[in-house]
Every structure is written in C-alpha cells, then in structure tokens.
Amino acid sequence: MGASFCVVVSMLILPLALTGAATSTSVVSGSWMNTVTQAPEESVTCDDLQGLSPGQSKLCTLYQDHMPGVLRGAKDSTKECQWQFRHLRWNCSTQNENSLFGPVVKLATREAAFLHAVSAAGISHAISRACREGQLSSCGCSRSGRPRDLHRDWIWGGCGDNLEYGYKFTQGFIDVRERERRTRKGTKGHARTLMNLHNNEAGRRAVVRTARVTCKCHGVSGSCSLVTCWTQLPAFREIGDYLKDKYDGATEVRANRRGKLQIRDPRFNLPTPNDLVYIDESPNYCVRNLTLGSLGTQGRICNRTSHGMDGCRLMCCGRGYNTQKVTIRERCECKFHWCCYVECKMCMKTIDIHTCK
C-alpha cells in the first residue's frame, strides 16, 4: 500500500498488543456467532441475533443496515477456518446448535486466537466491501489519501473498499464485548481479555495489510491513455492464508503482576500487533474429549502417501487406518465444441479411501 494510505490507517489503529488495559472475561461466544451464521442474510434484524452483549445490541440498533455485513463476515470467517484447518487434527469443526465451535473457544489456545482474528477479519472485510458497494447509509467509497509512490500521471480516486470504516466499525462491534465485564488485573480472566483484544486487532490489521492498490486502463483500443487507481481488498482466502501463517508462528504469553501480557520465553521476539498470541497449550486433539472441544481423529479421512499433518501416520496419531474401496462417478473425456459449450461423459472410477482407526 502507498505511504500516505498507511499513515491514515496508522492513525486509526491504537495498538493493544501487550500493553493495553482491558476489562472483560468474555470470549468468542458460540451462541451469538452460531445465531449470526444461521440468520437470514437478506432480512437479518437485531432480534435474529440472540446472544449479543449489551454493547453489541446497542450498536446493532444504531447500525441495523450493517448486520447483513456482519452476517456475511461471520459466515466467511467460519468457512475460512474450516478450509485452513481441513488437514489438521483440529479441523475447526462445528459441534451443535448451542455452541458453534464448542468448548475450544473457552480455552486460551492458539486455535482460539485464530478464531478471534479470523472473525474480526471477516466482519471488517465484509463491512469495507459493503461501503464500496453502497449498501450502508453511513459510509461510501474509500477516502484514503493518494499513495506517494503512485505514478504521477495516474488518477487516484476510483471507488475503493473502505478499509478505514470497516476497521473502525469492527473494532467497536467486536471489542465492546471484551470491555464490558470488569476483571481484576493479574487474574487469568483479565489475561484472556488482553489476549482476545490483541488477536481481534491482529485480524483487523490482516485486512489492512493484504489490501492493495488496483489500477485500470482507459482509452481507445486499449491505448491506456488514462489510468485510474483505487484501494481494493483481496479475496478472503488470501487473508485466511495470512492469518494461518500467523497461527503457525503464534507466541505463548502470560499475565504479569502489573496486569499486562508478556512472553513466556525471553528467547523469542516480542510479538507485534500483527501477530497472534495465546496463553494455554492446545489439548490433545487425537482423542475425543468433548469437555475440551476435541472431537478426536477417529474416522477422519487421511492421505496414505503424505508425510504432512494430513498423512495417515500423523492424522491417526499412530493408531493406524482402515482402507475402503469406493466407486464414484465423475465427468471425463470432456470436449470443447465451437461455439461454445463443453460436452463430457460420466465415468465410473474406483478409489481407495483411508480413514483413521
């Protein structure tokens, strides 16, 4: 992103990181997230969103036209979590109608850190895009400043995604939940609030950091005599990839007596506001333990030839695997006909499916 745009964003972002004072014990609530992902997007109302905190309910009433964007962002973040972890022992499984991700969100693990970050990113992404598309009454196209490194002959001012507004709205809507209930400094509940706020911030920043300047040529016969540029967000998959990298490199922290988070191992670098942090080690996801939010890996499909986490040796945790032959139908021998359609045959194919014991 251009330098001037980064300056604008840096003025909006108040780093919570490891020094902010916070006042809540709440975590990502399975009830409200579950309601959001199941509510009707086109006609969602505040009454549909059960489980909101008092502060979120007030914001919902004030910004009712934003709720479809909140819904889209929540759905996108849930799907993205399941995609990013599809080959891991914990695969971001949804459990039941009462709790979207189950007890795993109550543990201060790196998985909970990712859930907070991707949820904040999903809503920020959706609201920023909704502004550009004219769906919200209180915002429109981005008004970010012209990047300093943009070619001087190019025009700045196309209708860009409104990152600034998406960031600020999401900061208010997500973080208010963490700030409403007071806890005593130095307690584990206070540490968890600091962790949640930090990871919420990292999710919003991921949206800003992955945005880019996009330009379009105008002119007769593609002469490109005029170039217009604007700020554009990437597909949410790119943001998910970015946050998955942050998950892999998350930093373990703890609360000190002053009520702040600090790294457990001084040999590691201090995490930035863009990084994810966690307090507790993850449970053993090999074994089914619904109290801890682990569904286990029994019955999970694995890749017999892979040496990665999706491989049968690691996925099945040394228990071995079963192999079953399955016959599937698939399109084959496809031919393109001028003009303009593709004709395929349906073929039967037998494959081996490996599942963990």
Which tags fit this structure?
alpha+beta; 18% strand; 35% helix; three-stranded mixed beta sheet; 357 residues; globular; 9 helices; 11 strands; Endo-n-acetylneuraminidase fold; disordered N terminus
In short:
35% of the residues lie in helices and 18% in strands. The chain is of the alpha+beta class. A hairpin with a 5-residue loop joins strand 4 (251-255) and strand 5.
Low-confidence stretches: 1-30
Quaternary structure of the protein: single chain
Largest beta-sheet details: 3 strands, mixed
The shape is globular
Summarize model confidence as the mean pLDDT. 85
- Through-space gap between termini: 49 Å
Query: In DSSP terms, counting alpha (H) and pi (I) runs of 4 or more, how many helices?
Result: 9
Helix-strand pattern? HHHHHEHHEEHEEEEEEHEE
How many β strands by DSSP?
11
> SS-based structural class?
alpha+beta
Report what the structure shows:
The chain has 357 residues and is of the alpha+beta class. It has two domains: 292 residues, no CATH class; 58 residues, Endo-n-acetylneuraminidase fold (2-Layer Sandwich). Helix content is 35%, strand content 18%. A three-stranded mixed sheet has the order 1-3-2, with no helix packed on it. A three-stranded mixed sheet has the order 5-4-6. A hairpin with a 7-residue loop joins strand 2 and strand 3. Helix 3 packs antiparallel against helix 6 and helix 4 packs across helix 8. The N terminus is likely disordered.
Question: SSE layout and pairings?
Answer:
Elements: H1 3-12, H2 30-38, H3 54-62, H4 67-84, H5 110-132, E1 155-156, H6 163-179, H7 188-210, E2 212-218, E3 226-232, H8 236-248, E4 251-255, E5 261-263, E6 277-278, E7 288-289, E8 294-295, E9 301-302, H9 312-315, E10 321-337, E11 341-356
Parallel strand pairs: 1-3, 4-6
Antiparallel strand pairs: 2-3, 4-5, 7-8, 9-11, 10-11
Helix pairs in contact: 3-6, 4-5, 4-8, 5-6, 5-7, 5-8, 6-7, 7-8
